Amino acid sequence: MTTNRIAFQGEPGAYSHEACRSARPDLDPLPCRTFEDVIEAVRSGEAELAMLPVENSTYGRVADIHHLLPESGLHIIDEAFVRVHISLLALPGTRLEDVREAMSHTVLLGQCRGFLRRHGIRPVTGADTAGSAREVAGRGNPSLAALAAPLAGEIYGLERLADEIEDRQNNTTRFLIMSRQPDAARRAERMMTTFVFRVRNIPAALYKAMGGFATNGVNMTKLESYMVDGVFTATQFYADVEGHPEDANVRRALDELSYFTSSLTILGTYPAAPLRENQRHAAE
User: Fold this and answer.
1) Does residue 283 surpass a pLDDT of 70?
2) What is the distance between the alpha carbons of residues 164 and 267, in angstroms, rounded to a whole number?
3) Where exactly are the structural domains of the chain?
């Protein structure tokens, strides 16, 4: 039975929660402890969709996600980008000069070094961003603040002493929205296709496999490799390309790819997020 929920990993107020509210405001967010729990919630019918982060513009791909996607049994039906805005959150009535320590996930702490240094605030490592906000709210110590999304402040009753304090102003996380059923309908003029593959054990197999995308004019926006089952000779590749498998040039490229692969699995075809077009225009 499908429920009107979208599952995400983390505490309420996490950036994944923010992605759910932004991309699927009509669904109720369902927090889960691990990525595996998120996937299982959708597979079991406890949630309709999964919101999974795959990469960050500053820190690269999210660990373990590429291993989980092919085995999840789920299908990518959309993508979402969330700008990582970081706020300094503290107990109501606290002044900025009262704060001596700030707690957050170690990755987020590293993104606010300049602000913390300027204000003489010592970083304290917490389990995660939203969890740190919850802990600050529970401790009742005005000298301890949290670094998290503004949403976490709303949920845990904290005041925002400073907003957008991240060192890099373009820090963005990409999320994939996944469902039990695929949806390859042309829902937008610009479509994306994501797939994983393993090349055959022959000389120059990867070079030959990629040739079809070049000769057919298919833009590959991402190609990443990762080890399979801890074996150095077994490598799987994750790829994003612009276009739909029914497009003549994409179909020819995938057909050529299949000649040089031992396995090829399309994980999903979905509309390209508006951010892609905006960044393309900015680069021109």
Assistant:
1) no
2) 35
3) 5-83+172-179, 87-162, 191-283
**How many CB atoms are located within 10 Å of the residue 117 CB?**
10
Fold of 191-283: Alpha-Beta Plaits (3.30.70)
Q: Looking at the annotation, which residues are catalytic?
A: 173, 175
Find the largest Cα–Cα distance for the chain.
67
Q: Which fold has domain 87-162?
A: D-Maltodextrin-Binding Protein; domain 2 (3.40.190)
Rounded-to-integer distance, Cα 132 and Cα 152, Å: 9
Among 22-36, 42-56, 60-74, 182-196, the least confident range: 60-74
Do 5-83+172-179 and 87-162 fold alike per CATH?
yes
Q: How many CB atoms are located within 10 Å of the residue 2 CB?
A: 13
Sign of CA dihedral 224, 229, 233, 234: negative
Instruction: Note the residue count of the chain.
Output: 284
pTM assigned to the model = 0.90
